[in-house]
Amino acid sequence: MKKLNICMVSFHGCIRVFKETHILQQAGHTVHHLAMSETFGWNKYETHTLYADEASGIRAVQMLDNAGIDIFHVHNEPDWIVSMVRKGTDKPIVYDIHDLEHLRHSGGPDEHELNAVRDCDAVIHTSRYTQAQYDKTHGPKKIDGIVLPKVPRDFLVPEKMAKAYAPHTLVYQGGLAEQEQRHYGSDGIMYENYRYYVQMVSGMALCGFQSFLFSASTLVGGVYEGAGAIVFPAQPWITLLKAISPYQIGFVGATTHCDLMQYSSPNKLFEYIAAGVVPVVMYAKHAAEITENLGCGIVLDVANPIQGQLDQDEIIEKHNRLLEIRESIVMEDELPVIEEIYQQLLS
User: Is the pLDDT of residue 260 over 90?
Assistant: First the structure.
């Protein structure tokens, strides 16, 4: 297809935005970025523009539209930025749904999600489950596709480093909640604290595994240290990939059922694979299917104690398998899906 001028629009420029941008640029497309903050990789884009609120965001979209953008590729959450972009342009909008918001809580889609569906021209999903949920909730179906958040080949941790792991160690990267109970957000909706992992840390300790947590947020309660974990602050993405590589297994999922975690496709699953860390999956149906299909991880049976499910010989076998296949599980393989959606929008 012809080379395009693409604007990636996001709230904070998360790593999925960077991953997609990298492979699009490799394919010869020009990618601009519009976000509310500078985050990892901001200097990679042709231009990086900041907006402070909806009004300044609309003006920035208008400016970029006039400069020759072909497609606005908008990443949630939040969903309201999809409608912000629509107010500034008539160009095609792709709604890249990192998390289908109404799966986070009990209840149907809110106003912002409904408006985003109305205002977009195509949709990108992270799994066939979130795609099915979107179709069930929102139909009729628009142009769509599934893009898994794999790691670009350029950023795989070197094989020598990926081979050198410490036995009986577990790593987790991502959000951590400090309270167990469900809580109400500022919008008055009840949300599950599915990222409360104290039980996971304690359970792994009973199996002889030391837990090392790389938190995406600042923690103040000390609950994880109290459970025996070692907690590190957030790190730049490339540094993080290397930092998690010495650990033997990496946790994916939750310690309780949550539709969002069950059906989504977590970045961390593919980052563990890229770093040479064996994924251990619980309460994450889609991640479990990927792991089992690849044969490079362990899916925990929640009906039975964790003890006995983490055999060292099996983990070593999975690790060897992971090193054999990880170069074939890369973001470059997702490029045709994105380009096909763009092609359909512009034809």
Answer: no
Strands 166-174 and 143-146: unpaired
Q: The whole model's pTM is what?
A: 0.93
Q: Where are the alpha helices (DSSP H) in the chain?
A: 15-26, 54-66, 80-88, 111-119, 128-138, 159-163, 198-206, 223-226, 237-244, 259-263, 267-275, 285-294, 312-325, 335-346
Do the Cβ atoms of 220 and 143 come closer than 8 Å? no
Average pLDDT over the chain, rounded to an integer:
92
CB 261 within 8 A of CB 254: yes
Q: What CATH number was assigned to the domain covering residues 153-328? A: 3.40.50.2000
Alpha carbon distance 113, 331 (integer Å) = 27
User: What is the C-alpha to C-alpha distance for residues 116 and 183, in angstroms, rounded to an integer?
Assistant: 25
What digits encode the pLDDT tens for the residues 142-197?
A: 999 999 999 999 999 999 999 999 999 999 999 898 887 665 655 565 556 778 99
Kind and range of the H or E element at 95? strand 93-96
Other C-beta atoms closer than 10 Å to the C-beta of 20 total 24
Q: Return d(Cα 48, Cα 42) in angstroms, integer.
A: 6
Please report the pLDDT score of residue 185 as a whole number: 58
Return the CATH architecture of domain 5-149+331-346: 3-Layer(aba) Sandwich (3.40)
Three-state DSSP state, 122? strand
What is the rounded CA–CA span in Å between residue 293 and residue 303?
Answer: 21
Domain borders along the chain are 5-149+331-346, 153-328
pLDDT in tens, 284-330: 999 999 999 999 999 999 888 888 899 999 999 999 999 999 999 99
Taking CA atoms, 278 is separated from 208, 245, 247, 296, 328, in Å, by 16, 10, 9, 7, 16
- At 4-21, the pLDDT tens digits run 999 999 998 889 999 999
